[in-house]
């Protein structure tokens, strides 16, 4: 083998090694702590800020009472907060992203990733970019800020990906509690049934004589069944909506169309302390998930008997309410009057 051939082979060897180092990046498989993405002290987390390329932003802040606020204005759903905190604590590296997929993962994180900043007090503890699911749907593409190597992250024992726990819809983070009142807190209540006004009524507590004042739709006094009124008033404790629809599932156009329909009923409540609320109930059409679709005679029902769409004053999006949860609130004059 002559000298030129040896030099050529050496050059080819060097070029091959350089190509391997650049394209395959073997150093990125260096061992990294399994919990590199986790936050162990979730009790110390004071706020979580999330943002994406679409301009959506969500700020979750812990109050001194250990309650959480969404975007500084509405109470957060504590169960969803707990799920997010437990996710941050439990998630671990499943595996490095294979070299053949790494550029794709980085592109996904750059375009669709959710930048998640985690704070303890005013100190930024960690910034994580949360991407979509891995091809086998058992992990989630994630990247730590300041690094250029993405990983598949999962929770051991959990089959699925974690992106849905980092959602960007403010209304989805909102606390679903609607009423949480004791009977003595309720001063006035009025319900108007649009399809059967004979069952509409108003209730008022006489604070001086400690009596229950019940009136029909015409404003005439009706003798109340004291026991039934007590059952009615006790129904305002711990009442939650089933959930809220964001603009992606119930568009503004669909909301406008709903508001043009005749409501099923409208309720107004005023507390002794002065706070008031108005809820408007609309019948929900029969859908694929409706369980009870036919009446006793086998005729198809026009509306879902188990759920309502509800408009809550002060909240732009529509809520879904289960009938059995609000059954004792959606009562009738006939039930409350003395027979």
Structural overview:
- With 339 residues, the chain is an alpha+beta fold.
- It folds into 2 domains: 30-173, no CATH class; 178-336, no CATH class.
- The chain is 22% helix and 32% strand.
- The strands form 3 sheets. Strands 4-3-2-1-6-7-8-9-5 form a 9-stranded antiparallel sheet. Strands 14-13-12-11-17-18-19-20-16 form a 9-stranded antiparallel sheet, covered by helices on one side.
- The N and C termini lie far apart (115 Å).
- The model is unreliable at 17-30 (pLDDT under 50).
How would you classify the helix and strand content by structural class? alpha+beta
DSSP strand tally: 20
The helicity comes to 10-25%
- Helix count, DSSP H or I runs of 4 or more residues: 7
User: How many whole angstroms does the radius of gyration measure?
Assistant: 29 Å
The overall pLDDT average reads: 88
Instruction: Give the end-to-end Cα distance, rounded to a whole number of Å.
Output: 115 Å
């Amino acid at each position: 083998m002559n000298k030129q051939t040896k030099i050529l082979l050496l050059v080819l060897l060097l070029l091959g090694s350089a190509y391997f180092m650049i394209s395959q990046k073997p150093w990125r498989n260096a061992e990294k702590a399994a919990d590199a993405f986790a936050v162990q002290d979730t009790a110390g987390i004071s706020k979580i800020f999330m943002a994406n390329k679409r301009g959506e932003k969500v700020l979750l802040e812990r109050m001194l009472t250990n309650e959480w606020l969404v975007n500084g204005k509405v109470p957060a759903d504590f169960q969803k907060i707990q799920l997010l905190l437990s996710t941050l604590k439990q998630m671990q590296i499943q595996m490095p992203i294979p070299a053949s997929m790494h550029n794709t993962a980085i592109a996904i994180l750059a375009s669709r990733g959710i930048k998640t900043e985690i704070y303890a007090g005013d100190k930024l503890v960690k910034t994580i970019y949360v991407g979509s699911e891995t091809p086998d749907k058992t992990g989630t593409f994630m990247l730590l800020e300041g690094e250029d190597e993405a990983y598949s992250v999962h929770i051991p024992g959990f089959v699925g990906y974690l992106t849905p726990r980092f959602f960007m819809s403010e209304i989805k983070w909102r606390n679903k509690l609607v009423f949480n009142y004791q009977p003595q807190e309720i001063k006035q209540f009025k319900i108007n049934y649009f399809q059967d006004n004979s069952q509409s009524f108003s209730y008022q507590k006489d604070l001086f004589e400690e009596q229950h004042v019940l009136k029909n739709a015409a404003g005439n006094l009706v003798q109340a069944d004291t026991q039934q009124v007590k059952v009615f008033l006790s129904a305002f404790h711990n009442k939650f909506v089933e959930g809220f629809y964001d603009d992606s599932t119930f568009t503004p156009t669909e909301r406008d169309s709903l508001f043009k329909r005749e409501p099923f009923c409208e309720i107004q409540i005023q507390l002794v302390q002065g706070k008031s609320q108005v809820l408007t109930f609309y019948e929900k059409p029969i859908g694929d998930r409706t369980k009870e679709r036919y009446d006793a005679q086998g005729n198809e029902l026009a509306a879902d008997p188990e759920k309502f769409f509800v408009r809550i004053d002060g909240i732009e999006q529509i809520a879904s309410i289960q009938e059995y949860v609000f059954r004792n609130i959606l009562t009738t004059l006939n039930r409350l009057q003395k027979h």
